[in-house]
Amino acid sequence: MKLTIYGIARSRAIRNLWMAEELGLAYQHVQTVYGPEGSRKPDFLKLNPNGRVPAADVDGVILWESLAINLHLAKKVGGSLSPKDVDEDGLMTMWSMWAVTEVETPALAVLTHGSLKSEAERDNALLAKSIEALKAPLAVLEAHLAAHSGHLVGGRFTVADLNVAACVFYLRLSNLLADKPAITAWYTGAMERPAAKKAFALRGD
Ligand SMILES: N[C@@H](CCC(=O)N[C@@H](CS)C(=O)NCC(=O)O)C(=O)O
User: Fold this and answer.
1) Atom 2, ligand 1: which residue's CA is nearest?
2) What's the CA-to-centroid distance between 53 and ligand 1, angstroms?
3) Which fold has domain 86-197?
4) Which parts of the sequence belong to the GST N-terminal domain (predicted)?
5) Tag placement on the chain: N or C end, fewer CB within 10 Å?
6) How far apart are CA 94 and CA 35, in angstroms?
7) What is the homologous superfamily of the domain 3-78 according to CATH?
8) What confidence score (pLDDT) does residue 205 get?
């Protein structure tokens, strides 16, 4: 397979870099920053008209949306991370879409307004609202992992775990997982995988 991943590792491209490492794929990594110097350049807009990273070229098929890229790679390559049948495919897609619609936005707000921004720049109302919004989905995730031996689909680590863990990553500096032992064990296990370590090392943090 010929794979090119566009986007710096300190962006959602990390999800695709992690997936490529998990699958043992050789790939080209084109460092593409945000904004006029990268994701908004006319050449990049031909790949992703949304002007955002990541984008990927998978054997000539241009894809954007980080989690969709991972689902595509999983199905194209096969193996234990990939759906073994259409039912698993449905579940892995479900969890990936759930992560984006229920977790990603409030989790990112918790990261930025709870940790990364200076006290003066923080929107504390948005932070409180985001913490509240995460209560229900985190309870769902905790209950599911506790009841399914620590994995989302098929009793093994799959692209669903990777995609969801990559969104839970935004909670790493918060205390929101302190009372969630199943999520904590699952997330720690995901991040300790050799492929995760190799990819996250590219972020330089
Ligand atoms: N849903 C998209 C979101 C992509 C996205 O927002 N990427 C950010 C970097 S992590 C970006 O390119 N921001 C620059 C901009 O919006 O101009 C995905 O998961 O790929």
Assistant:
1) 65
2) 5
3) Glutathione S-transferase Yfyf (Class Pi); Chain A, domain 2 (1.20.1050)
4) 1-81
5) C
6) 31
7) Glutaredoxin (3.40.30.10)
8) 84
